[in-house]
Predict the structure.
Amino acid sequence: MSLDSLKSSLPDYAKDLKLNLSSVIGNSGLPAQQLWGTVLVTAIASRSAIVLRELEPEAKANLTPEAYTAAKSAAAVMAMNNVFYRTRHLLSDQEYGTLRAGLRMNIIGNPGVEKVDFELWSFAVSAINGCGACLDSHEQVLRKAGVDREVVQEAFKIASVIQAVGVTLDAEAVLSE
């Protein structure tokens, strides 16, 4: 299955999602590695088996083995970090912010791909998981590295569309039971 079968699976009422999915993937200005890494990490972060099953083969075909592994690593570490840092940020007791995290996240320092790509993927996962602290942190790293706002926005556009496709298709699967 593929991107086309994913689009054809969307119900008529989600025509905007179908068009947006075509646009954010088919008309993206991102380099192939950034695009397909972002697609893969957001498919994983969406928690939708349908979306991941459909998009993973195409992402894998468009990524080097190192980028494929790095993208999955970004999804994994950010699943942990987003919960940790979002919780610490949301607690009214600011003293938690002074405590050592004590969590291993070595992959961030040595991801096996360009740092900008990994940061973009981490940012996209954080958009889906709603961690403002992580969004700010990764956006600042990207901007300091010279990444334009349009590129950053492209990542969260992809994240928003893939998340919405996952929610829609998962709901349809439940409703059709």
Observations:
- Residues 3-175 form a domain with the AhpD-like fold (CATH 1.20.1290.10).
- The radius of gyration is 16 Å.
- The helical segments are 3-9, 15-26, 32-45, 49-62, 65-90, 115-129, 132-144, 149-175.
